[in-house]
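PROTOCOL LOG
Step 1. Enter all chains and additional molecules of the complex.
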Amino acid sequence: MAQEFVVPAPWAGRGWRLKIRDRERVEPPHVTLLYKTRSWRFGLRERAFLDDDPPERDVPRGLVGNLEERIEEFAAVWDRLYPENPVKSNESEDV
Amino acid sequence: MRVKTSSAAGRGSRGKKRSLVPPNEALEEERHKSPRLYIVSAPGHRLPSARVAEEDAVYRIRGKQALIDEFKAANKHAVWVAPNLESLAPLVRAAPVARGEQRLVVLGEMREVTHHFLTALFRHVVSATDHFRLLELDELMEVLTSPGRADLFIGGAVDEERGAVLLYRGSVEPLVVPLAWFRNKSSKATADPDSFEVTDFGQTVKLGAFEASADAILYEFDPEYRRRARKRALYEDSSFGASVRRLRLQKGLSRRDFPGVTEKEIARIERNEISRPHARTLEILASSLGVPLAELATY
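Step 2. Run joint prediction.
Step 3. Record the structure below.
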């Protein structure tokens, strides 16, 4: 089941959403921040946006800070939904 | 936001008489620069407005003659939105020659025979029916006026008997995805084909409680989207080995799932330690991953 995370005030009431869905691009692990027709993938290993680092006018810095503080929360959900590609990858490099 | 109006009276907002067909080359060139959105007005129907990027334009069409003239002059990839079939009746009766690959979204329901008539004029026709679900109206207009509308979905339908999901993009182009793709063995939700909808302003496809991102769908099924997405990625390793690894993980396979190729060899390929895998190995990779050989490096 897709996981939608709480978006803190003041952004929650403005249409921002935060999700890990049942089918995402699996690599790299990420949580998706959505606002209307736009979205940004936030990498759970990189602890940064994965595409086109958005300016503050697009994504408030306060919201970005909130994402950075909650990496463990997102990672736990990601690992549950995508155990074949966890945030801390367990694929052996010594094969 | 630029919203242009073309009306049968030929008068703009300041009461000055305007030509129904662009009179000069500059305006004509503008029409053909990139696809446009045409909104057909009808009495009693007011479509929600939406913010439009500066470089785009929305044409609101009022009146029978304006509808016909604008159809003839429109960019060949233009998208039209009509509140109902009646608003398009003048166009159907005039039966102008179909031009280019224009697309149509009709917000009201229509009979199948009408759908056939309209496909004589438009390359793709989409309307809400019992089986075809469109986005909620305000989200739909937001998507259709978005610069990135081609990478968003506006609606679709499920054919459970044939195991397929038909999706329409904001550019009103169809995309068919196998119903079996909508699964994740680690998720508590299973896809319910009887409960289909598009949400999150076209960014999520839902089958009951099961949700799939438009990004994941397009990345797997549209090579052009994949190419653009890879260009935007900040941290992505663009090597062949990394592409194979991403594709393998996306397909839910382990390194042991390639008959005829050892786990060790797969790992070495993914680490780019084998610069030129054997042709037979590449065939096994492509076959096991379910993609054409030429696309192995594009993920």
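Step 4. Note key features.
Chain A has one domain: 3-94.
The longest helix of chain A spans residues 71-81.
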